[in-house]
Write a structure and sequence with these properties.
This protein is α+β, with helices and mostly antiparallel strands. The protein folds into two domains: 95 residues, Ribosomal Protein S4 Delta 41, Chain A, domain 1 (Orthogonal Bundle), CATH 1.10.1050; 91 residues, RNA-binding S4 domain (Structural Genomics Hypothetical 15.5 Kd Protein In mrcA-pckA Intergenic Region, Chain A), CATH 3.10.290.10. The protein is built from nine helices and five strands; from the N terminus they run H-H-H-H-H-H-H-E-E-E-H-E-E-H. Strands 2-1-3-5-4 form a five-stranded antiparallel sheet, with helices on one face. One of its GO terms (molecular function) is structural constituent of ribosome. Part of the 30S ribosomal subunit. Contacts protein S5. The interaction surface between S4 and S5 is involved in control of translational fidelity. This is Small ribosomal subunit protein uS4. It holds the Pfam family S4.
Length: 201
Amino acid sequence: MARYIGPKSKIARKFGEPIFGADKVLSKKSYPPGQHGNSRRRKQSEYALQLREKQMAKYTYGVLERQFRNLFEKAQRSSGITGEVLLQLLESRLDNVVFRLGIAPTRAAARQLVSHRHIVVDGEVVNIPSYTLKPGQIIGVRERDKSMEVIADSLAGYNHSKYPWLEWDGRTYSGKLLNVPTREEIPEPIKEQLIVELYSK
């Protein structure tokens, strides 16, 4: 399974967002990395701004270039606003929903739980992080893995009412995808229209 394994704090500082989860470095160094990170930068070109949004979306959801391009092409073929559909497809990935349900503290941890066969969808083990969920499907922790410390720690005190498109059942350690989230419900500060403009060139 391909995934980003490079420096994470440097990337978070580049975008000024904790895209890999809480990062103490951001509070200490709120400027971009590099020799000239703390100096005034010249105005960025339109292309640079578009590329920045694409890179930010890729790193946020843990998707590499080819996967991201395929998702964009799928969004283009769908009815609806391309940029919004793209974010909805990213949000509907199994690893993202496991993260949103609080089963894992980060998307990277969620991806690992899925890959290691700890997650079930409608009662069946699914070990593909990019699996696209449909409304009505039940996502849960495999019965024998419910006592795992990493899962218990992540769920402790987690606010399950944050995302109205998801429903959580603490008794069964499972959640339900009620519907595909609208753009207003997706909290990520991504300007998806810039991504659409980049790929439309």
